[in-house]
Amino acid sequence: MSELFSPEWMEGFAEAWNADPQLSGALADIGFSSNIAYGYAGDDAPKGLLVVENGKAVSSGAFDGQELNWDIRMPAANWDTWMKKPPNMMTLGVAYTTGKLKFAVGDYSAMIKDPRMAGPFIKSFAAMSKVA
Hints:
The chain is an alpha+beta fold.
């Protein structure tokens, strides 16, 4: 398995993202486009970047100072757990309210209240868990 959020891992994540119509298709339906970064809580910068245009991941790789719409962070142990067993809405809510899941950039509350975004957000973690 590639190191979590490495360029190789992010490429696999982009492929898994695009292969899931409940993720990429649902986001295409609402014209979702964003630069999404992922990394570890406490680090100065995120590790990986996924560029999404109209629901589809169009590029991925290492974060290198790009402008972000979302910057999602958690401790390594939490990421490891979610790679083995992706979260559901309750698990996600607990992680956020206990401060384990952090958004350095982006509005979690607004996103999670919009079912057109919340469902695909949950699906994104399932796509992550499929990356070898």
